[in-house]
Write a structure and sequence with these properties.
Layout: H1 2-24, E1 33-36, H2 49-65, E2 73-77, H3 84-97, E3 102-105, H4 119-125, E4 130-133, H5 138-145, H6 154-164, E5 168-172, H7 174-177, E6 188-190, E7 193-195, E8 201-204, H8 207-212, E9 224-226, E10 244-246, E11 258-259, H9 269-278, E12 283-287, E13 291-296, E14 304-309, E15 312-317, E16 339-348, E17 352-354, E18 359-361, E19 367-368, H10 409-418, E20 424-428, E21 436-441, E22 449-455, E23 458-472
Parallel strand pairs: 1-5, 2-3, 2-4, 4-5, 9-10, 11-12
Antiparallel strand pairs: 1-13, 6-7, 8-10, 12-15, 13-14, 14-17, 15-16, 16-23, 17-18, 19-22, 20-21, 21-23, 22-23
């Protein structure tokens, strides 16, 4: 009887300890991403306290997903930057200051490419619980972490294995864009047949040039498709501001659609939609500056996207887009590319999104604007809809980080439209050879809805399923 009692007590203790461990540890194979649009505040010498709060929240989310203040060991990777040493040192100090148990620079950069197969670096990588990819030029990540045949270097292979085992992946700007790649998460119908397609990686270009392309076989302009590894390093391969992309894509940790960064600030809505259309991709995502797209339970039926930060995440759904709907019907004889019926969703703090079902969940502290609009009509149409870098009439206004007269113009138009009773509005490009036009339409059958809420004395606007038409008007 005494032995039986001891056995039961030991069993109960074991179950208690096991249960405690399970409740306080993340699932061993849970995969997470934090994808930042750029523009984080300086946490070592802070200046803007209002925006700084959001930057700190993003760092804390990364640390949490990497194991918390007692377990997070962050590998810092700044190979996309020409100032990789200074950037690496900065992020190392930033993560430690904000609570990471450890942070180490992974010593691979444009001047030390051979270290991507160094056994000591591979060993270092295996001790990390999270990996932070800094900004710069995403093409440099291809050069420093992938082989010429687009296969993984030993270090990237080790990072990938760590990710599969539960380590988290983080990126900012170029470090966000590089994460897209591999096979698109769903087959695509091309020519009546279902096909597996790879996700490409944007490398450069503006929204205006993306729609300046002529839509005909003998076009004298085209998108710049970088098909081979060497194409990325040929300075004469692509020209000016034309939309360019690497067909083989990036690292492939994110396969739910295209990725871009600095989106609203630099008016990149047009370029990401144009590339998605070109490559038969229905989904595109892009966080704004000082904002993170957080993806948890990646590659599972429970995958969820959420927003942390000052601004928002832009989501484009091209599943119903066409050349024969909306304003595109009036441009039947146009020689230029046109795309209409794109659903545009913009999510802000605490909103959630399911990429498998395209379900939007707005934070419960936000309310629909329908019936509570503050304006009868939308403001006057814009004549700088893509926030042109060439428009700097007032130099004082162009001192902002994006160096544009009207940063966030298209997004501001969308928010203004939802706060009015107008059914639609439009904007035109600052460039005029030709003028590219974007029409924004609230469509009841598509579920177009705007939302507003206030949190900690800050205003947040979200919306879903706003219809966008992109075209050159005859």
């Amino acid at each position: 009887m005494k032995k039986l009692r001891q056995f039961l007590l030991m069993s109960l203790l074991l179950l208690t300890l096991t249960g405690f461990s399970l409740l306080n540890s993340p699932p061993a194979l849970a995969k997470s991403l934090v994808l930042i649009g750029g523009g984080l505040q300086d946490v070592l010498e802070p200046k803007d306290s209002a925006a700084l709060v959001h930057t700190q929240a993003i760092y804390q989310k990364m640390i949490e997903l990497a194991g918390g203040d007692r377990g997070a060991k962050i590998g810092i990777i700044t190979a996309a930057s020409k100032n990789y040493e200074d950037n690496g040192e900065y992020y190392l100090k930033a993560f430690k200051k904000l609570g990471a148990a450890d942070a180490q620079v992974i010593p691979i950069d444009i001047d030390h490419i051979s270290d991507n197969k160094n056994p000591e670096v591979v060993k270092q990588v295996k001790t990390m619980t999270g990996f932070f990819f800094g900004g710069g030029d995403q093409s440099l990540y291809i050069k420093t972490f992938l082989n010429k045949d687009n296969t993984d270097s030993p270090v990237l292979r080790a990072i990938r294995q760590s990710y599969e085992n539960g380590a988290a992946i983080f990126g900012i700007s170029a470090g966000t864009v590089i994460q897209a790649g591999g096979n698109y998460f769903k087959p695509v119908e091309i020519g009546g047949e279902k096909s597996e397609i790879k996700l490409p990686m944007i490398t450069d270009g503006t929204s205006y040039e993306a729609f300046r392309v002529l839509d005909k076989e003998d076009r004298d302009k085209d998108l710049c498709v970088q098909k081979k590894w060497d194409d990325l390093w040929n300075k004469n391969y692509c020209h000016g501001d034309e939309l360019s992309y690497y067909l083989n894509g990036g690292f492939g940790f994110f396969n739910y659609g295209l990725l871009d960064s600095h989106l609203a600030e630099r008016g990149r809505q047009g370029r990401i939609v144009r590339l998605a259309w070109e490559e038969y991709i229905d989904d595109a995502y892009a966080p704004d500056e000082n904002t993170a797209l957080v993806v948890t339970d990646v590659d599972t039926p429970e995958v969820e996207m959420s927003v942390v930060g000052e601004r928002g995440v832009n989501i484009f759904d091209l599943s119903s887009a066409s050349k024969n709907t909306g304003a595109c019907r009036r441009q039947a004889n146009s020689d230029y590319e046109k795309i209409c019926g794109v659903k545009y969703t913009y999510l802000t703090q605490d909103d959630k999104y399911n990429p498998l079902t395209k379900t939007v969940t707005i934070a419960n502290w936000k309310s629909p604007l329908t019936g509570s609009e503050n304006h009868e009509r939308a403001k006057s149409p814009s004549f700088d809809v893509f926030s042109s870098p060439d428009n700097c009439v007032h130099p004082a206004k162009c001192s902002n980080r994006s160096r544009r007269e009207n940063p966030r113009e298209l997004l501001d138009m969308a928010n203004d439209l939802f706060d009015s009773r107008s059914p639609s509005t439009y904007g035109e490009t600052y460039e005029d050879d030709p003028i590219v036009k974007v029409t924004l339409t609230k469509d009841q059958s598509s579920g177009s809805t705007g939302y507003y809420g206030s949190s900690n004395h800050e205003d947040f606007y979200s919306f879903k399923n706003l219809l966008l038409d992109f075209y050159v008007e005859k």
